[in-house]
Amino acid sequence: MEQDWIWGLIGGLLIGSGGAVYLLANGRIMGASGILGGLIDGSGKSTWRERAAFLAGVFLLPIALLPLYGTIDTNVTSNWTVLIAAGLLVGFGTRIANGCTSGHGVCGISRLSLRGLAATGFYIVAGGVSVLVFRHLLGVI
Amino acid sequence: MRNLFAFVAGGLFGAGLFVSGMTDTAKVQGWLDIFGDWDPTLAFVMGGAIIPMAIAWRIVARRATPVLGGTFPPPPPVRLDSRLALGSIMFGAGWGLAGLCPGPSVASLSYGGVEHWVFFAAMIGGMLAAPPVLARMQRPVAAE
């Protein structure tokens, strides 16, 4: 759809604004995997309220916007094996790499962090290969 | 006050993921699918997100402390290691497989259906598995 890129840009600006607020007000890097991971494995115990408040915002704002959109189809696979394998890889990988699309991608690239740029290169290439293999070669997704 | 600003930041993040279509797994996989019907949306989201963040980093450079006190994050390490590469490759493989990453996973829990909860639960499991594995790695790398 033609409007998709406009909404992508608007959404991106909102995402970046969230990161800017978290950085300038709280002094923290907005990385979804780090905020969530630190909350559940206990490594972020001293800042758990801040982490929980952030995640509550991420969870609740879409609910507030939902009435404007009606039903949303996320086109997610119904194959539980795929979902579980993907979830394990995403959870484990982001904690090993210390970041995901928001932390390494948005926050890292915007400060020209070598690690952020490298991580983003790795996960984009791996994601592309994953879609190529599982969609086009194996036909699983 | 810190919690309020964290909530506002999370709200902006969640709203941005929602309106940009990044909780639609087909759009994410469509962007990664350069051999199929390529969807450019994710590039606009990433580009749009980097603009305010780049400005924020400029402001950080001119300020001593965050508005609510504390300290700013230290400069990022310039060292690359196998942990960063291996973790990112695993993350990317899972990202392509389901079309979800941690932020959109949380943002879509309320409306994505049971499949999104299954992914989320597995992601939590993967996150909990990481610290014991890291502790057993022979050459641990200092956390960022």
UniProtKB/TrEMBL annotation, chain A:
State the InterPro entries in the record.
Answer: Sulf_transp_TsuA/YedE
User: What membrane topology is given?
Assistant: Multi-pass membrane protein
Q: Which domain of life is it from?
A: Bacteria
Q: Name one Pfam family in it.
A: Sulf_transp
List the keywords (alphabetical): Cell inner membrane, Cell membrane, Membrane, Transmembrane, Transmembrane helix, Transport
Q: Which GO terms describe its cellular component?
A: plasma membrane
| Protein family membership | Belongs to the TsuA/YedE (TC 9.B.102) family.
Stated name of the protein: YeeE/YedE family protein
| Organism in which the protein naturally occurs | Rhodosalinus sediminis
From TrEMBL, chain B:
> What InterPro entries does UniProt report for this protein, alphabetically?
DUF6691
Report any Pfam family annotated for this entry: DUF6691
- Give the transmembrane region(s): 41-60, 80-97, 117-135
Q: Does the keyword Transmembrane apply?
A: yes
What keywords appear on the UniProt entry? Answer: Membrane, Transmembrane, Transmembrane helix
What is the protein name for this chain?
YeeE/YedE family protein
Origin organism is Rhodosalinus sediminis
Q: What is the lineage of its organism?
A: Bacteria, Pseudomonadati, Pseudomonadota, Alphaproteobacteria, Rhodobacterales
